[in-house]
Amino acid sequence: MLYNKEIAIKTAELLLKIKAVKLSPNNLFTWASGIKSPIYCDNRITLSYPEIRTFIRQHFVKAISESNFEPEAIAGVATGGIPQGVLIAQEMGLPFAYIRSEKKAHGLSNQIEGEVREEQRIVVVEDLISTGSSSLNAVEALRNAKCNVKGMVAIFTYNLSKAEKSFLDSHCPLITLTDFDILIQTAAKIGYIKDSDIQILQEFKKSIG
């Protein structure tokens, strides 16, 4: 769910301002999941803008503080969730760990890097949610370590129904600062995209569910 409608619009405006959102109807992007998409949201670029980075951190902290998560630690999903998670953990004075997509093939063969404890209340941090599979893989890794995952926060979600279902099935509440629908509405309002682009984006979202 969205943390706050007003904050969602502001977050979308900031992402569009720094061109973190790329549109390419004729030369599709490939997501990590393998899906071919006319839109790509690169939230890592927000880290290069101190004011925007601060805005995102502050509202992540507010969203977490106003929830019933009451975390004892913050965990970031590699790689995009790591820097955001560190910023949140520092602001909240909490321990931090991060989760790899899979166990290392060398050394200690860790998937979770950093110290976590059984029953420790943890909030997971992502930069964006597409299908949700990699994000929920991190949740599963923490639960396999017997941690108490309270929920996840992310900057952006594509609002895919398959992701929403996966989060519900995994009993993992998701809070985002903005989403696909708000982003498209905001982009159209400021002239960032054309009417023909809106139709392409809506048809794309509908096609992959």
Task: Report the radius of gyration as a whole number of Å.
Answer: 17 Å
In spatial order, strands of the major sheet run 7-6-5-8-9-10
The CATH C-level name is Alpha Beta
Number of domains: 1
Predict the CATH topology. Answer: Rossmann fold
Approximate shape: globular
Cα(first) to Cα(last) distance is 17 Å
Order of helices and strands: HEEEEHEHEEEHEHEHH
Total number of beta strands: 10
As a percent range, the share of helical residues equals 40-55%
Question: Are there runs of 5+ residues with pLDDT below 50, and where?
Answer: none
| CATH architecture descriptor text | 3-Layer(aba) Sandwich
| Average of pLDDT | 93
Main sheet record: 6 strands, mixed
Q: Structural class, from helix and strand content?
A: alpha/beta
Number of helices, where a helix is a run of at least 4 consecutive DSSP H or I residues:
7
Please indicate the percent range of residues in DSSP E strands (runs of 2 or more). 15-25%
